[in-house]
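User: I'm putting together a teaching handout on how sequence relates to shape, and I'd like one worked example. Could you take DUF3363 domain-containing protein from Pseudomonas gingeri, show the sequence you're using, and then write out its predicted structure as C-alpha cells right after it?

Assistant: Happy to. First the sequence, then the C-alpha cells directly below it.
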Amino acid sequence: RTELEMQRAMQREVDQERWTGLDRTLQREAADDGLVRVERFAEPGLQRQRQVLIGRLQHLQRMGLASEPHPGTWAVHADAEPTLRAMGERGDIIRTMQRAMSGKQR
C-alpha cells in the first residue's frame, strides 16, 4: 500500500463506530496511568498521525468513551473497547440482514 492509501485508511477510521486500528494505537500509547499524551506525536514526521489520533479521541469523547482531563492529555474509558466491539458486531449483523433482504450475496 502507498503512503496515501494508508493515510486515507486511517482517516476513514476516525469516525467509525467500531474498534479500529486507531483505537489499538491509542491503547498501546497509553502510559501506566492509562492516559494518552498527544505531545508524543509532536515530531514533524508524526504530524498526520497526531491529527488523526486527536480526531479519533474527539469522536470517542462525543460518544462518551473518552475525556480530556487536561489539554493534550486524554483518558480512553475502560469500557471503550467492549462498547466499540459490540457496536461493530451490531453493524455487521445489520449489513448481513440488509444484504439477505435485498437478495444480494457478497
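A couple of points you could highlight for students: The mean pLDDT is 92. The first strand starts at residue 35 and ends at 37.
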